[in-house]
């Protein structure tokens, strides 16, 4: 082969190599472009939730005022994500169209989405007022949102609660939900009235929603409202009206289970989001409470959430788990005004259908976090709702002085209207702002409405309530630094013995196993096993002939101290019960004064009598009739907190064996009783 021929072959091979390189380079570019496009499409293909109606883009909300086919006036607001229909001027939400569902609310009920209030006046039986508006107004309408009002002024009659009420609804652009708040006002010259309950409630479509979520570990498939029907024979009544046993439910999986809305209550501090999921439509309906400033009773007050119906609600004022001690009476000459809310009704959907129970709940929690972060909202039109700039902040550091000074970690610190220590438990009329200290006792309370407050608090691990000695006047934009705040919990002497943990609950005590034929499977092997029905009845079975005896140094409160001091059933009647605490004292100071610190986590129509070393003597101490919180019947492990510091003369005690008799003397039925938080005997002061 000639050199020229060899060169030709080499040149030809080089051309082929160049072409291959070019093709490879082009393929790499195409491959990179495809990967890039796939990365862009991945969030769409695998997104957990979507908030838009299929095929419809979000847009500025529109408002229509129409008459329906029955001639009734309606207001329709549509933002392209959902469409909500209101009765006008009443202000009931009668329909919400979202995704493929024409109405996520129950189309068979007149009351579907509404505010209501229970009230009574002298010589007038208790009434339920659904707060029907008499006047409709558009407050705001622009590219960003619509805010509408359904209001009613009191006309001086007895048909409605003596209040002026303005119900507001806000629908925003590109937002999958409805904000609602209410402005409630009474004039000082109006008659005395008692208002026991104010709430917002929604009755959902029973053909769509069957899965309910209250928390990560409190969610389940639910029976239907029809399953609770006693008259049709599907259920039988139990010891109180809210609880029924499902004897012939439509779905056999619920047979013999107990349904009771109080099994799903939640403490205010944890009550941020709850609701329902339609696994049929992959749609979620949620109630989000971004703040607790407008609620009553403090951070650990328990309130209803969602329950069979399907029903979901937000309660602003109630007597639940406190009872008639709640401050719900407004006297003649007393003016009052309060903004309740806003709360957020949130809708979401999962078009993939892959585990909607998980994806929709996780998205609802993320949305709740966003609402909390955005509080206080900057889009509320009412001047009665202060913006962030119109609010104040209080900071400080809390210490506990119980024989020595330590930072109060994880303590509850809050602002509430002026009053005595612990008065925040029963306050409904003002606003409350609560937080918890960090591990070194520092706290910040922000977004405080202007006003005059007391600073209150308590520290887990210590008894008693803290109150700052001076009133705090919060002004718009104010920043108050309290520096060091010291809480000195009740103590008169050294601890001789103690029972329980001072955490304001009876959670640490013995909670028995539920009855297998009246069980809620949700709470089997659950941290909240106290939410099972009928646990109070176990006391009679455990102690059929004699009452509980607890021996200090021998007994274990988690096994030997029943969670509730209840009555004993002896057939057709109930009798009082007397518990004993047996303890040894190697030495008694006859002239000294001992202290029995007795902290109660709950009381329901109870009278606790305390005797020392003689069961048949007159009571040395009696609480008198206390409590209406019904925590025993309503599966609560705590209600309202009570603390009694009882001075005990040394002459009542003995060297050697002593016995304290705790007698709950009220016994009209199964639910008179109390729960202990913590008991401690202190020796005489060594100061």
TrEMBL record:
Its EC number is 4.2.2.23. It is an enzyme of class 4 (lyase). It holds the Pfam family CBM-like. One of its GO terms (molecular function) is carbohydrate binding. One of its GO terms (biological process) is carbohydrate metabolic process. It comes from the Eukaryota. One of its GO terms (cellular component) is extracellular region. PANTHER family: RHAMNOGALACTURONAN ENDOLYASE (PTHR32018:SF13), RHAMNOGALACTURONATE LYASE FAMILY PROTEIN (PTHR32018). This is rhamnogalacturonan endolyase. It comes from Raphanus sativus. The lineage of its organism: Eukaryota, Viridiplantae, Streptophyta, Embryophyta, Tracheophyta. The gene is LOC108819844.
């Amino acid at each position: 082969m000639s050199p020229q021929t060899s060169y030709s072959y080499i040149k030809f091979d080089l051309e082929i190599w160049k072409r291959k390189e070019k093709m490879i380079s082009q393929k790499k570019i195409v491959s990179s472009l495809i990967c890039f496009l796939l990365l862009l499409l991945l969030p769409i293909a695998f997104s957990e939730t979507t908030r838009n109606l299929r095929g419809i883009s979000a847009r500025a909300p529109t408002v229509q005022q129409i008459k329906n086919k029955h001639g009734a006036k309606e207001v329709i607001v549509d933002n392209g994500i959902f469409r909500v229909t209101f009765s006008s001027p009443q202000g009931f939400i009668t329909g919400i169209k979202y995704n493929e569902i024409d109405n996520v609310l129950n189309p068979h009920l007149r009351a579907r989405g509404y505010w209501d209030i229970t009230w009574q006046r002298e010589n007038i039986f208790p009434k339920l007022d659904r707060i029907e508006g008499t006047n409709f107004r558009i407050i705001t309408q622009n590219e960003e949102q619509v805010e509408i009002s359904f209001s009613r002024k009191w006309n001086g009659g007895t048909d409605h609660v003596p209040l002026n009420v303005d119900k507001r609804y806000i629908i925003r652009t590109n937002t999958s939900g409805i904000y609602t708040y209410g402005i409630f006002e009474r004039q000082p010259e109006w008659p005395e009235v008692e208002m026991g309950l104010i709430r917002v409630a929604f009755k959902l479509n029973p053909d769509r929603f069957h899965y309910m979520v209250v928390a990560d570990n409190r969610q389940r498939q639910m029976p239907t409202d029809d399953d609770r029907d006693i008259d049709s024979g599907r259920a039988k009544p139990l010891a109180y009206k809210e609880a029924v046993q499902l004897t012939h439910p439509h779905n056999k999986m619920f047979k013999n289970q107990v349904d009771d809305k109080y099994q799903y209550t939640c403490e205010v501090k944890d009550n941020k989001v709850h609701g329902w999921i339609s696994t049929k439509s992959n749609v979620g309906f949620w109630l989000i409470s971004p703040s607790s400033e407008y609620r009553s009773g403090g951070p650990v007050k328990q309130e209803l959430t969602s329950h069979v119906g399907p029903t979901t609600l937000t309660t602003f004022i109630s007597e639940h788990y406190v009872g008639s001690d709640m401050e719900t009476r407004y006297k003649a000459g007393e003016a009052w005004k309060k903004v309740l809310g806003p709360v957020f009704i949130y809708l979401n959907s999962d078009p993939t259908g892959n585990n909607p129970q998980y994806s929709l709940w996780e998205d609802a929690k993320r949305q709740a976090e966003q609402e909390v972060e955005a509080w206080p909202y900057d889009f509320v039109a009412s001047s009665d709702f202060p913006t962030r700039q119109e609010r104040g902040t209080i900071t400080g550091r809390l210490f506990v002085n119980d024989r020595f000074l330590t930072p109060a970690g994880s303590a509850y610190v809050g602002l509430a209207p002026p009053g005595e220590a612990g008065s925040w438990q029963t306050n409904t009329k003002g606003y409350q702002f609560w937080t918890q200290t960090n591990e070194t006792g520092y706290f910040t309370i922000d977004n405080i409405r202007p006003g005059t407050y007391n600073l209150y608090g308590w520290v887990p691990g210590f008894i008693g309530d803290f109150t700052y000695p001076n009133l705090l006047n919060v002004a718009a934009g104010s920043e108050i630094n309290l520096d060091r705040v010291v809480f000195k919990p009740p103590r008169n002497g050294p601890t001789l013995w103690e029972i329980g943990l001072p955490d304001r609950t009876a959670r640490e005590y013995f909670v028995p196993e539920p009855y297998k034929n009246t069980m809620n499977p949700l709470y089997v092997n659950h941290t909240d096993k106290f939410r099972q029905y009928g646990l109070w009845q176990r006391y009679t079975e455990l102690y059929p002939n004699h009452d509980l005896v607890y021996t200090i140094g021998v007994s274990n409160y988690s096994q030997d101290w029943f969670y509730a001091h209840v009555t004993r059933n002896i057939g057709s009647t109930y009798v009082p019960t007397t518990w004993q605490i047996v303890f040894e004292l190697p030495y008694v100071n006859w002239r000294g004064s001992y202290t029995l610190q007795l902290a109660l986590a709950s009381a329901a129509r109870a009278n606790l009598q305390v005797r020392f070393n003689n069961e048949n003597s007159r009571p040395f101490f009696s609480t008198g009739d206390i409590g209406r919180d019904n925590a025993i019947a309503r599966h609560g492990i705590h209600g309202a907190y009570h603390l009694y510091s009882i001075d005990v003369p040394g002459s009542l005690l003995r060297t050697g064996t002593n016995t304290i008799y705790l007698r709950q003397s009220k016994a009209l039925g199964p639910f008179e009783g109390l729960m202990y938080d913590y008991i401690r005997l202190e020796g005489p002061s060594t100061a």
